[in-house]
Design brief:
Layout: E1 2-6, H1 12-19, H2 29-40, E2 45-52, E3 59-62, E4 67-72, H3 84-95, E5 99-103, H4 109-117, E6 122-125, H5 130-133, H6 143-148, H7 152-157, H8 160-180, E7 183-186, H9 189-198, E8 203-206, E9 230-233, H10 243-253, E10 261-264, H11 274-280, H12 283-294, E11 301-303, H13 309-318, E12 321-324, H14 333-340, E13 345-348, H15 353-356, E14 364-365, H16 370-381, H17 388-397, H18 400-417
Parallel strand pairs: 1-2, 1-5, 2-4, 5-6, 6-7, 7-8, 9-10, 9-12, 10-11, 12-13, 13-14
Antiparallel strand pairs: 3-4
Helix pairs in contact: 2-18, 3-4, 10-12, 10-16, 14-17
């Protein structure tokens, strides 16, 4: 069976071959894990295509097991870009895929494939849903707070509200794509409900995500080896990731736990100063900096910089607690990674997150209730062992073999039944 994936990221292998530099990226790890399993099957010929600013013409790159097609990003894939359509026709003619799998609805290059070629044997995986995320983008931050923290960057380039409008605009194309296909792959009650609302006639398949290999082997979290009273967040660039809520919770705990610390994966969003600050600081980053200063948390908050999968694993294992304080998410893989390693986890009751916390519901809290988040953190600081049921559930959910079998089963169903997609 020949399968064409359409993704939002360029695979590290393709980028390495394209640039001549070794790339070991963390983002999009679930795709890499799933692709690796799929090609191991031997009966699947996998082609992966995306758009990128690394090329100015269509590039075909033959990797070890996967052939990559890279389309020049051109005018971009935020609004609909008709210029992608000829590329898709050329790729379609060269690959002749039996099944086309569009990973994600957030950008428009997947929609351009459907408009150029049609929806026969096309299935779309839900990742995030911008049409829904837009409603939660400000993440409880008031208009007054936004105006009090507005920056030159946001005046010139747009801030939280313009970003919200951009999400809503992308959401219109997202809805068009979901309405245009007959088969959807999801994994949570949240994405099932919202995809049904957009397209009640779609066939909905469940397929969980496979994580990167490094998280399935090696040591597990231990109370004796973690750094006491330390907390880890996997990202914090945007309001929806909830860093501002985490900071408020930590401020309530620092008298009880003077050694409390927070480590955040990614670049230091508080480090830009002077001219660089004027160029790069957003309203949200400015707000975060003020919260850190207000609560005297400067020496308790550390940004790790960009991390490889192995470095991410090390951060999980050294943390006393992992928290996922998002205002909205579908199924954050960072939460699955932490759970598989046995790290005590706390997560907001938002989007599809409750599905990932089955068996560990006591560590859910309402997103904006930072007092309850502080209470949950304190409870886990005092806990002496990890939740073995949580690990078991996460291992079953992210089981590479089971997920690979399910994905192949979905492809076979689509191939056998066409647009009716009957199981």
């Amino acid at each position: 069976m020949t399968v064409l994936w359409i993704t939002n990221i360029i695979f590290p292998e393709a980028l390495s071959l394209l640039t001549g530099n070794h790339v070991n990226a963390y983002g999009g790890g679930w795709l890499l894990g799933a692709a690796e399993r799929l090609v191991e099957n031997g009966n699947i010929h996998l082609f992966v295509s995306t758009v990128s600013n690394c090329v100015n013409e269509l590039k075909c790159i033959k990797g070890k097991h996967i052939t990559h097609y890279i389309i020049p990003i051109g005018k971009g894939n935020i609004s609909y870009n008709k210029n992608y359509e000829p590329y898709w026709k050329e790729i379609r003619n060269q690959v002749k895929p039996d099944v086309v799998h569009i990973h994600g609805t957030e950008f428009t290059h997947g929609l351009s494939y459907v408009k150029a070629i049609g929806n026969k044997n096309v299935v779309v995986s839900i990742q995030g849903m911008k049409s829904v995320i837009a409603e939660y983008y400000t993440a409880g931050i008031s208009l007054k707070t936004i105006l009090n923290n507005i920056t030159i960057h946001d005046i010139l380039k747009g801030g939280i509200y313009s970003e919200t409008r951009a999400f809503k605009k992308c959401g219109q194309y997202e809805k068009e794509l979901i309405r245009s296909v007959h088969c959807i792959i999801g994994r949570t009650t949240w994405d099932k409900a919202h995809s049904y609302t957009i397209n009640p006639l779609r066939k909905y398949f469940i397929c969980n995500e496979t994580l990167q290999p490094t998280f399935y082997s090696g040591e597990l979290w231990s109370q004796t080896t973690c750094i006491k009273h330390s907390i880890f967040l996997s990202q914090a660039y945007y309001p929806i990731k909830g860093l501002h809520i985490a900071l408020r919770a930590i401020s309530l705990l620092q008298n009880r736990y003077p050694d409390i610390s927070l480590r955040i994966a990614g670049d230091d969003i508080t480090s830009y100063k002077g001219l660089n600050g004027l160029k790069h600081n957003t309203t949200y980053w400015n707000y975060v900096k003020k919260l850190i200063e207000r609560y005297n948390l400067k020496h308790k908050v550390t940004f790790t910089g960009l991390l490889s999968p192995n470095s991410m694993k090390s951060e999980y294992l050294r943390a006393n607690v992992f928290i996922c304080p998002s205002s909205i998410e579908n199924s954050p893989n960072s939460l699955g990674e932490a759970q598989i390693l046995g790290v005590p986890c706390i997560a907001s009751y938002a989007g599809g997150i409750p599905d990932l916390m089955k068996g560990d519901e006591e560590h859910l809290y309402r997103f904006e209730d930072y007092e309850m988040l502080a209470h949950k953190i304190s409870e886990l600081f005092e806990c002496e062992e990890y939740n073995k049921k949580m690990i078991k559930n996460a291992l079953e959910r992210h089981d590479p073999k089971a997920n690979n079998s399910q994905l192949i089963s979905i492809y076979k169903s689509i191939l056998e039944n066409g647009n009716s997609c009957n199981m």
